[in-house]
Amino acid sequence: MQIHAAIADLRAALKNRGRIVFVPTMGNLHAGHISLMTQARAHGDTVVASIFVNRLQFGPNEDFDKYPRTFQADCEKLDAAGVDVLFAPTETDLYPEAQAYFVEPPAIQNILDGEFRPGHFRGVATVVSKLFNCVQPAAALFGKKDYQQLMVIRNMARQMALPIDIIGGDTVRADDGLALSSRNGYLSDTERAEAPRLYRLLTHIRSALLAGHTDDAALENAACAELTAHGWQTDYIAIRQQSDLNPPASALVPRVILAASRLGKTRLIDNIEV
Fold first, then answer.
1. What is the pLDDT of residues 91-145, one digit of tens each?
2. Residue 205 falls within a domain, yes or no?
3. For a Cys staple, 187 with which of 47, 130, 162, 191, CB 3.0–4.6 Å?
4. What is the pLDDT of residue 198?
5. What does DSSP assign to residue 166?
């Protein structure tokens, strides 16, 4: 596996490499990331991963400084997964001057996760756009666990006429249902045992919707109340339509149930499609 930090070196390495498939990450890789790398091979000739902890998408009181950085272990995992090229820029490589131009998503950036993390999706869209320009892939894979992020990026690529296929990878879960996340490492043993409750509640809501329940607010409120009773601090549990994450126009549209809740000091997100 080749590793490049400089943009010019990366571009030189990717010349004449056929159809390029890209999987951007912030490192601290787990099985969910590796699943995306494995899936990427089916979509092109050369698989490129990136590792970059993007300061722009972290709020002032979030965990940028303590976000786990495990570069050597990550490289070993990527190499074993068959990744061809790793782009691992420093902040100086990617932001040689203070970033003054930004990609500003529309109203979707201010709902759900965006309501609680102002500026987050602006930072995500800006860095992904910049990474796309560096790598120039034909396709890119993003995990469905970050459902709102996937939609922001997919819509950006469509509206900006980027010649990139945006592919969503299914969420990878532990045996007890907890969605794999780099932040799961923050959980204490007690919190880790409690954490699967979030997914169980999402599956309960999904079953209720499929059984014909139509009072979305009652289902959302009951789930929030159960989390609160077990020590969680919930930002939202929301039933939305998949197309734009607005409240469902009817029970016939494809829906997704999204959640973000804090267990101790760890903020967990998850979702399940209906």
1. 999 999 999 999 999 999 999 999 999 999 999 999 999 999 999 999 999 999 9
2. yes
3. 191
4. 98
5. E
Average pLDDT score, the chain = 96
- Confirm if 26 and 53 have CB atoms less than 8 A apart: yes
pTM: 0.94
CA atoms within 13 A on the CB side of 63: 12
Which of 169, 198, 224 is the last residue in one of the domains?
A: 169
Q: What is the number of domains present in the chain?
A: 2
Q: At what angle do helices 71-80 and 31-40 cross, to 10 degrees?
A: 40
Quick one: which of 53, 41, 65, 44 has its CA closest to 94? 53
What CATH number is attached to the domain comprising 110?
A: 3.40.50.620
pLDDT in tens, 48-85: 999 999 999 999 889 899 899 999 999 999 999 999 99
Residue 48 structural domain: 2-169
Note whether 83 and 149 are same-domain residues: yes
Amino acid, single-letter form, for residue 96? P
Mean pLDDT of 200-216: 97
- Is residue 66 in some structural domain? yes
Q: What positions carry a catalytic annotation?
A: 33
Together in a domain, 54 and 82? yes
Query: Would residue 137 count as lying in a domain?
Result: yes
The stretches of the chain forming alpha helices (DSSP H) are 7-13, 31-40, 71-80, 91-94, 113-116, 120-135, 147-159, 189-194, 197-210, 216-229
Burial class for 94, CB neighbours closer than 10 Å (0-12, 13-18, 19+):
buried
**32/161 Cα distance (integer angstroms):** 28
